[in-house]
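tool=predict chain=A
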Amino acid sequence: TVHIYNVHGAMVKTLFLSAGDHVEPLPSGVYLVRVGERVTKIVVK
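tool=predict ok
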């Protein structure tokens, strides 16, 4: 399960992806992506 949050902490999307799947395009901005216990910051231009 993938959880995507904006920089304000609001959940933007929850996705159920398999290995190798891609996330649909997001609007420009900074996001935090959580997969399990791991959190990564991404920037969409």
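The chain has a mean pLDDT of 92. Residues 2-44 form one domain.
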